[in-house]
């Protein structure tokens, strides 16, 4: 299927998730992250949750990496060039929402892409080769192209990868892996 079709379908699928479903799916994803071997990781990049699109809450992941004494990097978006600039997230870094509702750091120290050992990547859907579809502005393709070759790029998603995204182009960067819940929504049972 085409990126444009997939974008529409998976925006809708995510929007249809209930709060309780998201809680369960998130817990499963967090557990998989806590099981990663991060002994070689010093600096990790995370996206800050865009709540209006029901993205995974990355705060528990940030807290976890901080508790493991890792340096956290987050970005600011430039929507005129569709590029990201990066900043160390300190304990005292102030966060404010930009006009698209994306939380962004204020008054923080700049970070270089080459300093990143691990990047968690937001996405709508991925395929079996770990290519991804995002919101369609190419922010992450531009960003990931500047990361080191040995920087691990891991996608996070509530949905299982599809077999193939048909219109992959030369700018698309394949991820190293995608973490998605290892449980089926239909098998979820909720306490009454
Ligand atoms: N948390 C988070 N941060 C991120 C991303 C992401 O996927 N998640 N992005 C990943 O690349 C970039 C932001 N990409 C975005 C692209 C479009 C819209 C958005 O609000 N689109 C409107 C239409 C806006 C317009 O085109 O004028 C919409 O879809 O309704 C938001 C973020 C960089 N930061
Ligand atoms: N490194 C780059 N240089 C120039 N153009 C690029 C680059 N990377 C991506 N693009 C262009 O950006 C546009 C959006 O790309 P694409 O549809 O793959 O976005 P996406 O991965 O879904 O979105 P995002 O990365 O913002 O979540 C495409 O027209 C693509 O050709």
UniProtKB/TrEMBL annotation:
GO terms for biological process: folic acid-containing compound biosynthetic process; tetrahydrofolate interconversion. The keyword Nucleotide-binding applies. Pfam families: 5-FTHF_cyc-lig. It comes from the Bacteria. Its EC number is 6.3.3.2. Its cofactor is Mg(2+). It catalyses: (6S)-5-formyl-5,6,7,8-tetrahydrofolate + ATP = (6R)-5,10-methenyltetrahydrofolate + ADP + phosphate. It is an enzyme of class 6 (ligase). This is 5-formyltetrahydrofolate cyclo-ligase. It comes from Polaribacter porphyrae.
């Amino acid at each position: 299927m085409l990126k444009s079709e997939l974008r529409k379908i998976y925006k809708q699928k995510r929007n249809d998730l209930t709060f309780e479903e998201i809680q369960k799916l998130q817990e499963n994803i967090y557990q998989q992250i806590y099981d990663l071997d991060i002994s070689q990781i010093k600096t990790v990049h995370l996206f800050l949750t865009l709540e209006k699109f029901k993205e995974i809450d990355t705060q528990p992941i940030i807290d976890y990496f901080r508790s493991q004494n890792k340096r956290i990097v987050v970005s600011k978006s430039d929507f005129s060039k569709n590029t990201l600039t990066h900043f160390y997230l300190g304990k005292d870094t102030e966060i404010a929402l930009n006009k698209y509702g994306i939380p962004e750091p204020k008054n923080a120290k700049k970070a270089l892409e080459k300093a990143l050992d691990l990047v968690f990547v937001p996405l709508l859907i991925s395929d079996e080769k770990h290519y991804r579809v995002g919101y369609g502005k190419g922010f992450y393709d531009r960003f990931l192209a500047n990361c080191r070759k040995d920087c691990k790029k891991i996608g996070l998603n509530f949905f299982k990868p599809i077999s193939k995204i048909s219109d992959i182009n030369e700018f698309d960067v394949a991820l190293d892996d995608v973490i998605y819940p290892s449980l089926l929504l239909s098998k979820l049972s909720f306490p009454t």
